[in-house]
Amino acid sequence: MDLAIDERPATTTILRDLEATVDTGKLLAMQGMTEQGWEGGRQLEAHITAMYEDICREARSLAEPAFAWAYHGVAAIRSNELRLDGGQTIKSRFLAQKLAPARGLVAMAATIGPRLEDRIKAYQAAGDTMAAYLLDLAGSALVESAYYSGFQQVEIKAAAAGLEATTPFGPGHSYWENLADQETLFTLVDATSLGITLTTSYLMLPRKSVSGISGIGQGFEVGEYHCQYCHLRRTCLLSRAK
Ligand code: SF4
Q: How far is the CA of 102 from the centre of ligand 1 (A)?
């Protein structure tokens, strides 16, 4: 991060001009398929491929991708907690270990807005469960795509300052189970500017929203992608799309 960012730790930057996309190949990969059909199986019929293409087109047209990020200095990292300059604390042995050399962290949030979810509900109400299911999958891929597109901008800024950004870590994955940390995260980045709210059980609305943090510094020993720390990796639909 450049010094201008360090000096304005609470400032949230909003990005809306993001590349976020989903295509038939990604949607199929999330279900363990390729455009040639099920792995080792038969070719997909043309009308199935056309249905996937229609859903992807619809999903892209409904998505309103937006990303928010804010930099915070790290005051101290102990064996099981990160304490930030603003006094916020994240208790996690895992994160304390992975972010150990961090001089700061970036808190992030992304969403594709509510329109795609409204369409899913309309499909459900009309009894078209297949379209609802596929559109839901496409929405998950799109919000992930928006998140990583925004994160790429953070990585570029960090690199320009001679720093590295760790792979993003987010509450709700198996390596960071304490969903209540969403509340802390929402004090670090102004996700409400994107229209994201938290329920009393710490779920984000719109549902197609993602939040997380990335350590900023030098000398991290973390893998390239956060799923490598998650025990759901082999079964998670989303991780298959990477
Ligand atoms: S495997 Fe799935 S649940 Fe686990 S970190 Fe990756 S996306 Fe999240």
A: 23
Q: Tell me how far apart the alpha carbons of residues 142 and 194 are, in angstroms, rounded to a whole number.
A: 16
Mutate to test the pocket of ligand 1, among 222, 233, 234, 242 (most ligand atoms within 8 A of CB): 233
Among protein residues, the one with the nearest Cα to ligand 1's atom 3 is 173
Ligand 1: residue whose CA is nearest its atom 1:
233
Distance 46 CA to ligand 1 centre (A): 31
Question: Domains, the chain, ranges and CATH?
Answer: 3-240 (3.40.109.40)
Q: How far is the CA of 12 from the centre of ligand 1 (A)?
A: 26
| Measured distance CA(61)–CA(72) in Å, rounded | 34
Place of tokens 């078209």: 128
Q: Running DSSP on this structure, what letter comes out for residue 176?
A: -
Q: Are 166 and 214 in contact (CB under 8 A)?
A: yes
Which of the 8 DSSP states describes residue 206?
S
pLDDT above 50 (res 4): no
Report residue 117 as tokens.
């979810």
How far, in Å, from the CA of 7 to the mean position of ligand 1?
Answer: 34
With CA atoms as reference, report the closest residue to 212 among 165, 156, 163: 165
Can you list the alpha helix ranges (DSSP code H) found in the chain? 3-6, 24-30, 46-62, 93-98, 115-125, 129-160, 181-188, 237-240
pLDDT digits (tens, 9 = 90+) for 8-50: 446 899 999 899 999 999 999 898 887 665 555 667 788 888 9
